[in-house]
Amino acid sequence: MSYALPIRVLHSLIALATLVQLAIGELMTVPGIAEADEDEAGWILSAFAHEGHGDIVQPETLGFEVHEFLGLFIAALVLVRVLMAFSDMPGAGWRELFPWLTGEGRRGLAQEARSQMPLWKQGRLAPPEEGERLARTVHGFIILCMFGMAVTGAILFNGWNEHGHQTAFIAAVGELHEGIVGVLEVLLALHVLAVILHLRQGHNLLARIKPH
Questions:
Q1: Residues 203, 127: contact at Cβ < 8 Å?
Q2: Which of 41, 79, 126, 190 gets the most CB atoms within 10 Å of its CB?
Q3: Would you state the pLDDT for residue 152?
Q4: What integer best gives the mean pLDDT of the chain?
């Protein structure tokens, strides 16, 4: 089943913005007070470092500013996607994104998993139309992660001290934000791997989600 046009356009925007955001997040310097490790004099460590000797002030950088505002843009896109989940557009409903929330959805997921497991053992995937619930479950978890990133990112945007030490609460939110990023990266890697396997098997997967 093809997705509705708004879903396909939003999918492309979120995918592009998220890939750029993850790259910036890996390369940027986080402003604030960081601890310097005496074994690596001259190098500024992460603002979340816990074992250091002496403080170094990390100034705000262009990368960090872009990360902040791109994060707000992605948060807006995710909010639109969440609102779409309560619409009647094909492929948009929350029951399709989170089938495990209903008894019927859980039974369907279990049935799909049992039928596809022999193929997985061979490094293959069933045609997309035969694995709708499993694929959309992954999409749902990706959206949940992005929603969590948006919430924690918004808290950090408003509470991060760019000129001093962070409070215990903000530091904890920062750690949670990083943890969610790690989970999202794993899910995205699995998602990309599944797309590659589908294409290698000749499944016309991209036609279902292309924005045109």
A1: yes
A2: 126
A3: 92
A4: 79
Whole-number Å distance between alpha carbons of 156 and 170: 7
Whether residue 121 is contained in a domain is answered as: yes
**What does the pLDDT read at residue 29?**
80
Q: CA–CA separation, 120 vs 204, rounded Å?
A: 19
In a domain, 59, yes or no: no
Distance from C-alpha of 2 to C-alpha of 210, rounded to nearest angstrom: 9
- Residue entry with tokens 């791997």: 193
Residue 45, in any domain of the structure? no
Residue 31 to residues 75, 125, 132, Cα–Cα distance (Å): 22, 44, 43
Domain that holds residue 199: 5-28+69-208
Question: Quick check: helix, strand or coil at residue 35?
Answer: strand
DSSP labels, 69-106: HHHHHHHHHHHHHHHHTTS-STTTSHHHH-GGGSHHHH
Whole-number Å distance between alpha carbons of 71 and 76:
9
Torsion of CA 108, 109, 110, 115, to 10 degrees: 90
pLDDT of amino acid 186: 93
- Closest Cα partner for 154 from 185, 171, 181, 177? 177
Q: Residue 198 — very low, low, confident or very high, per pLDDT cuts 50/70/90?
A: confident
| Contacts for 14 with CB less than 8 Å, ≥ 6 apart | 74, 77, 78, 81, 146
pTM of the model: 0.72
Assign 47 a pLDDT band (cuts: 50, 70, 90).
Answer: very low
Q: Which residue has the tokens 């492309």?
A: 12
